[in-house]
What we know:
Shape: globular
Structural class: alpha/beta
Mean pLDDT: 93
Oligomer: single chain
Low-confidence stretches: none
Amino acid sequence: xxxxxxxxxxxxxxxxxxxxxxxxxYENNDEAEIFFIARGENEKVISENGLKVESTKGNFTAYPxxxxxxxxxxxxxxxxxxxxxxxxxEQILLQLSPCINTSxxxxxxxxxxxxxxxxxxxxxxxxxxxxxVYLVSRLAAPGxxxxxxxxxxxxxxxxxxxxxxxxxxxxxxxxxxxxxxLSENIQQTIWEKFLFISTIATVxxxxxxxxxxxxxxxxxxxxxxSLLSELKNVADKKNIVLPENIINKTIEKMIKLPxxxxxxxHSDFQKGKQTEVNSLTGYVVESGxxxxxxxxxxxxxxxxxxxxxxxxxxxxxxxxxxxx
Length: 324
C-alpha cells in the first residue's frame, strides 16, 4: 500500500505541535510518513535530535521521516499543511512547488481569513481547504516546542473538497491524537476564530498587555468589546452567519486562557520582529472601508500599530548595519 505523504511547512508553535503529534504516531508506520519543512538552526537541530515537545498533556520527542528546507528532497506530497506566518505565504508556496502537483491538497492553518483565495491564485487547479486552530504554543528554542494552554483544537473542511480525501485526513489526524474536527461549515468556523484572534492580537499588541491583564480592567475590557462589535458588524455585512452570542462566547474563551497568555503578534512586536498586523488588524480596517462599515476603534489602533511596525523595521535595519 502506498504511504500517504504529508508535509508541514512552518515548524513553529502550530506546525511544530501538530506536526510532532503526527510524526510521533506515524514514525515507522506503513500508513503515512511525515515531513517537516524548516530552515536554519531549527532544521539542523530537528534533523540531528528530533523535535522535542513540552506539553500540558505530556512531553515527548518526535522524529519525522525527513526535516529539510529543500522541497526537492521531499518530492510530491498528498497533503501540504501550511502553518507559516501570513506575510510569508506566497513566497513559501512558490518555494514548495517541487512538492506540489494537481493532486496535492493544500491546507492552510494561518491567522486571517483570506488564505484560501491567496493560495488559489497560485495553484488554481488544486484542492485548497480551509482550517484554523486554537492553540497556545511556541517555538521556545530551535527544535523545542512548548505548549502552555489548555486548548489544542484543529478545525478543517472544504465546501468543494473531495469527500474521500477529507475523511482520510480526518482519520490520519484523529489516529495521531490530534483534536481535529471536520467542519461542515468551515467558513463560519474560521470567522469565529478570526473574531478571537484578530481582537486578541490587536488589543494585546496595542496595550502591550497579556489577555489576563486586558480582562482584569474595565477600560481595556471595553476596548476589547468595541473591537469585537466592529468585527462582528463587518462579518454581518459579508453575510457570514455567526451565532447571536458570538461576542460573549469569544470573551468566555479568552477568560479560560492562562492569565499571562498573549498573542503571537504581541510577542513579535515585543521582539521587534515582522508582524501579521495587516492580516489581523489592517484586514478589518480595509474591509470596513470597502463595505461602508464603521470601524473607528480598529482604525485608531491600526494607525498606532503601523507606526510601531515602522519603528521596528527601522530598528531591524539599523541592527543589520544597513542605512535607514
